[in-house]
Design a protein that fits this description.
iron; 4-stranded parallel sheet; mainly alpha; repeat; binds iron/sulfur cluster; 24 helices; Rossmann fold; 4Fe-4S; Glc_ox_4Fe-4S; EC 1.1.99.14; 48% helix
Length: 456
């Protein structure tokens, strides 16, 4: 019994579900869990951050610090109704409270990092919906990122190198651009027909890649750099902006132009490092952000994708980065600039990054309300993650598909013409779902809709 449980029993409160209880409940037929120290290369708990040189990175915690964060959880369970994975499985180990207990048990040395335990932790989307309802202000995202970093640090060198290389490839703007070109030429090629004929696109391990390729083929655009001598803002499109929401880049440049804002679109795109950090590689993530800081200016940094902006803000030097709709909503709008009317039903998707980390997407509604006759509504189930969550849609395809269905089915029942979203990963995931449903709904960035309705 833990010290907290002794205190709760003394005060007549029900005992918190401990990590061992959670696993015993859900794994009655499993062999008993063994001490993790045997499996970890390091000798017991660490008093220092895993990477000694990155004491300021929230993803790189000492065990003591990780436990201090986790111990702030009072196990009240108020976060449970907010958690999409718990709603799906109804398993305590797939809830925020359960995951915190598992991290505590693992870091304390009471639980081994078995595939089953890893599965419960990996099942977390890091959507951070749980943080929004937590009365103890538990930094759940930092706990999960810290635990992931600890796990990765304990893996073999070759496994770390393998994992880091494919995530680094996904974070590389040039490779992303090449992927976009490939997807476009592949979509209608004999190769695609052959893959469909062989039913490779139905294979459980391959299907996430095929469905994303189909969405990228629609959304990818080659961007045209617009570096200028004298500019007002720097536009940040991220490593996958060109691939995932390519049309939004030119559209954003047009909207800026119409509002008299001189935007700088650099020759080379950069990465915020989010995918690397959430997968346990905070060093590599930080080097991406450092490169951005070194090449940066004093101009406002305005990001197209809400998840990238949330990630940029994790660095103190980039803490004032803006999400593009939030930025434009605060700019004066010329009286003479009247948008053309559009009779269309538009659902506004609110990504978790915008809702839980940037304070909500009211600015998207404000901007789109400038389009006369638009039938604008929030997307149903906006409070739930769509299941994209960075690399999650590739790593946990079943849960990702289930969460998408929960969200997309009621949305498609509303017969929208367009779905708008401010996050590039969500855009691809939603579009892939629309394609799978055989519907012809556009999934675009709000900037694309604004640019289309600009007067000629
Ligand atoms: S709401 Fe906060 S304190 Fe309560 S169980 Fe969830 S994480 Fe812990
Ligand atoms: S971050 Fe999201 S998926 Fe993970 S425990 Fe919290 S609410 Fe659940």
């Amino acid at each position: 019994m833990t010290r907290r449980d002794r205190g709760r029993r003394a005060s007549g409160l029900p005992l918190a579900p401990t990590a061992s209880l959670i696993l015993t409940r859900s794994s009655a037929n499993q062999p008993p869990l063994s001490c993790p120290v045997k499996q970890l290369p390091r000798n017991g708990r660490s008093e220092r951050p895993i990477h000694s040189h990155c004491t300021t990175d929230p993803s790189c915690r000492s065990d003591k610090e990780l436990l201090r964060l986790a111990d702030q959880c009072v196990k009240c369970g108020l976060c449970l109704p907010l958690c999409p994975t718990y709603a799906q499985t109804r398993n305590e180990a797939d809830s925020p409270r359960g995951r915190i207990s598992l991290v505590q048990g693992w870091v304390n040395g009471d639980l081994a990092m078995t595939p089953r335990l890893a599965g419960h932790l990996d099942g977390c989307l890091t959507c951070r919906a749980c943080e929004t309802g937590c009365p103890s202000l538990v930094a759940f995202g930092q706990i999960m990122d810290g635990a992931k970093t600890r796990r990765v640090a304990s893996q073999s060198r070759w496994r770390r190198a393998l994992d880091q290389s494919w995530i680094a490839a996904l974070s590389n703007p040039r490779l992303n651009a090449a992927l976009g070109r490939f997807a476009k030429s592949y979509a209608h090629s004999p190769l695609a027909r052959l893959a469909r004929w062989l039913r490779l696109d139905r294979h459980p391990r391959l299907s996430p890649f095929f469905r994303l390729t189909g969405a990228i083929a629609v959304n990818a655009r080659t961007r045209v750099p617009a570096a200028r001598e004298s500019t007002d803002i720097d536009l940040f499109v991220g490593c996958s902006g060109e691939t995932a929401q390519g049309g939004a880049i030119a559209a954003a440049m047009e909207v800026f132009e119409r509002l008299g804002i001189r935007a700088n679109l650099p020759d080379t795109a950069s990465c915020c490092g989010a995918m690397l950090r959430h997968n346990g590689f905070p060093d590599a993530a930080r080097s991406h952000r450092n490169a951005l800081v070194e090449t940066g200016s004093n101009r406002p940094l305005v990001g197209l994708s809400s998840a990238c902006v949330a990630e940029l803000r994790e660095s103190p030097e980039l803490a004032d980065a803006w999400e593009i709709c939030d930025y434009l909503d605060r700019q004066p709008w010329p009286e003479a600039l009247q948008l053309r009317p559009l009779r269309a039903r538009v659902l506004v998707h609110e990504p978790c990054s915008h809702r839980n980390l940037l304070g909500g997407n009211a600015s998207v509604h404000h901007l789109l309300e400038r389009i006369p006759e638009l039938d604008l509504a929030p997307m149903p189930e906006n409070h739930r993650c769509c299941g994209a969550a960075g690399t999650y849609l590739l790593q946990q395809p079943e849960m990702s598909a289930a969460l998408l269905a929960n969200k997309l089915d009621p949305a498609l029942s509303a017969s929208p013409d367009i779905i708008v979203t401010t996050n590039s990963g969500c855009a691809l995931h939603l579009l892939a779902g629309v394609q799978e449903a055989g519907r012809s709904v556009e999934v675009i960035h709000p900037m694309e809709l604004l640019a289309r309705q600009m007067p000629s």
